[in-house]
Amino acid sequence: xxxxxxxxxxLDVDQILADPGVRIVVCCGxxxxxKTTTAAALALRAAERHGRRTVVLTIxxxxxxxxxxxxxxxxxxxxxxxxxxxxxxGGELHxxxxxxxxTFDDVVLQHTDPAKAAEIFANPFYQAMSSTFAGTQEYMAMxxxxxxxxRGEWDLIVVDTPPSRSxxxxxxxxxxxxxxxxxxxxxxxxxxxxxxxxxxxxxVTASFGMFSKVVQKVLGAxxxxxxxxxxxxxxxxxxxxRQRAEQTYRILQARETAFLLVAAPEPDxxxxxxxxxxxxxxxxxxxxxxxxxxxxxSAVPGLDAAESLAAAERLxxxxxxxxxxxxxxxxxxxxxxxxxxxxxxxxxTEAFPAVPAVSVTAQPADVHDVDGxxxxxxxxxxx
Length: 383
Hints:
By secondary structure, the protein is α/β, with parallel strands linked by helices. Helix content is 57%, strand content 13%.
């Protein structure tokens, strides 16, 4: 027996978007499942239908969000979306895309004096870390979310995260940062600055002998010097980094946050959604529901695939009904696909039967404008 796609409780997205107690909606899931479009559609609906002053933050470097909202570009500063229907309710919609280097630069400028900031910006290790190091994007996403929340300008912040394994990095960033700050290697690197500015190499050589030579050989003398200078320059800021990261983490656990898993009825995407749901449960973070995108449905659900194929074969045998037979075969293929999709989606429902869900029918074309986003928003928010 094929489980029904309605076996899970129905997700009421409008109730979430209209709730003044919900200030953050985090959309997460695998890549290529329509997560960016879903985030934009939810933000638009919150502004137009519920009159909320909303900002949508994308961490995805793709330009789809800007294009669908009629903006020529997105950057690290919220830009207001014009031409939407908010005159009657006073809502607003703003959009932005995370620039991790600029966010890192802003943090440095905010928490140190101009001379120290210039020293940090000139450090080669900082230049590499702020642009390309793994994990920096996720940590800076936490920083930006924390900044937006602290400003208090928005009724609702909608976050479009990277694909789910990276989104797990988004959740793990505060803990990783704390481990880094408390690590033995960091204390070694900070030692020169805390012992009168003696050379990194003279201090480590005197204390650890052969270990320092191995580290220098592996990392290279110049990289080790750059790293030591970088860590020393940031020493006074580390407490602030950790405090803000932990504060944002607590916000993500609070009732004002709602996580929405976004998936497509495909094995990998549903597996990722289930993995993420498990992590959210472990971390005691509020999972509001599952949005299942690109679901296929038959217009004639009473005619199953086997009956359709049998009828097509009979017509083919009679001759003169090729067009009708082709339609029946196409219907059979669609019915088979819909059955497979229900079976795949049921894997999530069986693992998390209490998580509300809503399915969105596959659209005939990609969403590329505000009208398309309205259509998706209405489909997600159906009663």
